[in-house]
C-alpha cells in the first residue's frame, strides 16, 4: 500500500523544551524520526511544524517540511492541514507518526497503514501487556477489540477486567491474561482525516482525555494491528532523552 507519513512536531514542550531539535548523534530528533519513516514503505514523508527553527533544521537535512498554523488544537488537525496542502486524494492513506519516536519500527507503519480500507477509515496499533503494574497504570492506555480486530473501547482503566483473577490478587496478571496496550501510531484515510476536526468533542473523550474516543463515539470504526513486541518507548522526559542518546552514540 502506498501511503504518506506526516510527522507533527511542535517546538513547545512542557516537560522537555525544544524536544524536536534535541541532538541525537549529530542530528535533530525530528530528522531521526523522518529517517526511521524513510525505512518503511511510505511513498512520502513530511514534517508538519509550527516553528521556523524546526523548518530550518529539516531543510538542513533535506527532510521535506511544511509550516502550519500555530493555533491547531491537536496534532491531528495539524496533519490534516498538511494533507490538504499536499493535495492528497480522498482515498489516500496518511500515517501520523509522532515527532518523538526516533526508534519506531518502520514495519509498524506499514502494518498500520495496511489496515485502512473502504469500511475502516482509521487504524492504530497495540501490543500485549505482561505486567500488572502497567495494566493498572492510568498513564498506560488500554484497548479492547471485537472479533474483527476493531476497537471496542480505549481506556486508562484496566480493561477488560478479569473478574475472577483480580478477585484474589492484583499483584500479578492471571495466567494467560494479557490486556492490550495502545500504541500512539495512527493511520487515516484522507477523506476521514479532513472530516475529523469538525467532529464535536465527545463526553468520553473529555473524561478519559483520549482523543481517539471521539472517533468511536461518532460511530466510526478503528482497526487495530496487534504486534507481539512492545515498541521502544518515545521521548517524553530528560531520562528518555538520555536513553535514546545512548542508542545513537
Written account of the structure:
With 249 residues, the chain is an alpha/beta fold. The chain has two domains: 1-104, Alpha-Beta Complex (Spore Coat Polysaccharide Biosynthesis Protein SpsA, Chain A); 108-231, Spore Coat Polysaccharide Biosynthesis Protein SpsA, Chain A, CATH 3.90.550.10. It is 31% helix and 22% strand. The protein has ten helices and eleven strands. It has helices spanning 29-38, 52-60, 75-85, 106-113, 132-135, 163-168, 190-195, 203-208, 213-217, 238-248, and strands at 3-9, 23-24, 27-28, 44-49, 65-67, 93-96, 122-128, 142-145, 151-155, 180-189, 222-226. The strands form two sheets. Strands 1, 4, 5, 6, 7, 8, 9, 10 and 11 form a nine-stranded mixed β-sheet that branches. Strand 8 and strand 9 (151-155) form a beta hairpin. The longest helix is centred in the first third of the chain and has 11 residues, at 75-85.
Question: How many separate structural domains?
Answer: 2
Assign the CATH topology of the largest domain.
Spore Coat Polysaccharide Biosynthesis Protein SpsA, Chain A
Percent range for β-strand residues: 15-25%
Globally, the shape reads globular
Q: Gap between N and C termini, in Å?
A: 34 Å
- Topology, number of strands: 11
Specify Rg, calculated over alpha carbons.
Answer: 18 Å
Please state the structural category. Answer: alpha/beta
CATH superfamily of the largest domain: Spore Coat Polysaccharide Biosynthesis Protein SpsA, Chain A
Q: Could you estimate the helical fraction of the residues in percent?
A: 25-40%
How does CATH name the architecture of the largest domain?
Answer: Alpha-Beta Complex
Mean pLDDT: 94
- Could you list the spans in which at least 5 consecutive residues all have pLDDT below 50? none
CATH class descriptor name of the largest domain: Alpha Beta
Biggest pleated-sheet summary: 9 strands, mixed
* SSE string: EEEHEHEHEHEHEEHEHHHEH
Instruction: Specify the number of helices.
Output: 10
Amino acid at each position: 500500500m502506498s501511503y504518506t507519513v506526516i510527522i507533527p512536531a511542535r517546538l513547545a514542550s512542557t516537560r522537555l523544551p525544544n524536544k524536536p531539535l534535541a541532538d541525537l548523534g549529530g542530528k535533530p530528533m525530528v530528522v531521526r524520526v523522518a529517517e526511521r519513516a524513510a525505512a518503511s514503505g511510505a511513498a512520502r514523508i513530511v514534517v508538519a511544524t509550527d516553528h521556523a527553527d524546526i523548518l530550518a533544521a529539516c531543510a538542513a537535512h533535506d527532510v521535506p517540511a511544511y509550516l502550519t498554523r500555530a493555533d491547531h488544537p491537536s496534532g491531528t488537525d495539524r496533519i490534516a492541514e498538511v494533507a490538504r496542502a499536499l493535495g492528497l486524494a480522498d482515498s489516500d492513506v496518511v500515517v501520523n507518526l509522532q515527532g518523538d519516536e526516533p526508534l519506531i519500527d518502520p514495519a509498524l507503519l506499514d502494518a498500520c497503514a495496511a489496515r485502512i480500507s473502504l469500511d475502516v477509515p482509521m487504524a492504530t496499533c497495540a501490543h500485549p501487556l505482561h505486567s500488572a503494574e502497567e495494566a493498572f497504570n492510568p498513564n498506560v492506555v488500554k484497548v479492547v477489540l471485537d472479533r474483527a480486530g476493531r476497537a471496542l473501547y480505549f481506556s486508562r482503566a484496566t480493561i477488560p477486567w478479569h473478574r475472577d483473577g483480580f478477585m484474589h490478587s492484583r499483584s500479578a496478571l492471571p495466567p494467560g491474561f494479557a490486556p492490550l496496550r495502545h500504541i500512539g501510531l495512527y493511520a487515516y484515510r484522507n477523506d476521514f482525516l479532513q472530516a475529523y476536526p469538525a467532529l464535536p468533542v465527545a463526553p468520553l473523550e473529555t473524561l478519559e482525555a483520549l482523543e481517539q474516543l471521539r472517533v468511536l463515539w461518532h460511530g466510526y470504526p478503528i482497526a487495530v494491528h496487534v504486534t507481539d513486541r512492545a515498541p521502544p518507548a518515545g521521548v517524553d522526559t530528560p531520562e528518555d532523552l538520555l536513553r535514546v542518546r545512548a542508542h545513537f552514540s
